[in-house]
Amino acid sequence: MLERQQLRRQMRQLRRALSPATRDEAHRQFARLLSGTHRLRPQQRIAVYFAYGHEADLRYVIDVARRRGCLLYLPVITDFRHSRMRFVRYRTDSVMRVNRYGIAEPDPRHAEVISVRRLDLILLPLVAFDERGWRLGSGAGFYDRSLHHLREGRRWRRPTLIGVGYECQRVARLQPDRWDVPLDGIVTERGLRWFERHPATL
Ligand SMILES: Nc1nc2c(c(=O)[nH]1)N(C=O)[C@@H](CNc1ccc(C(=O)N[C@@H](CCC(=O)O)C(=O)O)cc1)CN2
Ligand SMILES: Nc1ncnc2c1ncn2[C@@H]1O[C@H](COP(=O)(O)OP(=O)(O)OP(=O)(O)O)[C@@H](O)[C@H]1O
Fold first, then answer.
1. Per the record, what are the reactions this protein catalyses (predicted)?
2. Atom of ligand 1 at shortest distance to CA of 50?
């Protein structure tokens, strides 16, 4: 646990050290790489996020997804104390509010709240990731909690989970916790890499 905290701090530091130009080029690269997967098709339901701090930024991905007619969703904190979030439809004219981290989110009282299983693709921010598709996130467990139920029962078909981060956030091996949900893929400025969904990990 302490190790995870330390690693999180270290990886955030590495991320912060990237130059604005490197960062921007990486953000454009995410859009190019994801465009090439045929995942950004009309009517696909895709959960994105608004970059917080120095998180890998999806602005160009959001631009492409919009142009292609994808339906976009953003995470919205619904219960801060218990680290609960839901995914809410996001349009250019959405009524927005700001959560306690200062991240803009669509107001769930004015927009469609969708269940995780109806999403086709979720793009998740990474603090660190390993060769097998395990991830370290913000540390509050919001994504883990909202995706945990996918591990119950048979393998899920939807949604596909793709982590987004910079190459410098790669580590050799993360020790997954009981509640961690393995990623289907990871996109960095170097490329998009897919993982097998290994039965033993589900
Ligand atoms: N862009 C984005 N939106 C998101 C998430 C996310 O990880 N990224 N979330 C998914 O979880 C939820 C917000 N979760 C968060 C959980 C913890 C911290 C946090 O601990 N921040 C610290 C330190 C940050 C730092 O070191 O830079 C802080 O604000 O003090 C922030 C957001 C919902 N929206
Ligand atoms: N499904 C769950 N059930 C119970 N507790 C959970 C669950 N998921 C996460 N947690 C709790 O949340 C805390 C943070 O989890 P973890 O360190 O895996 O977060 P993370 O993956 O970095 O964050 P996130 O999922 O928000 O990106 C853990 O200490 C754990 O107590």
1. (6S)-5-formyl-5,6,7,8-tetrahydrofolate + ATP = (6R)-5,10-methenyltetrahydrofolate + ADP + phosphate
2. 1
191 lines ligand 2 (CB under 6 A): no
Q: Where are the domains of the chain?
A: 2-201
ipTM for this model: 0.90
Side chain identity, residue 49: Y
Nearest atom of ligand 1 to the alpha carbon of 76: 33
pLDDT in tens, 18-40: 999 999 999 999 999 999 999 99
CATH class of segment(s) 2-201: alpha beta
Cα 145 to ligand 2 centre (Å): 6
The three state secondary structure string of 24-73 is HHHHHHHHHHHHCCCCCCCCCEEECCCCCCCCCCCHHHHHHHHHCCCEEE
Partners of residue 104 on adjacent β-strands? 98
Q: What pTM did the predictor assign?
A: 0.94
Which H or E run contains 98?
strand 96-98
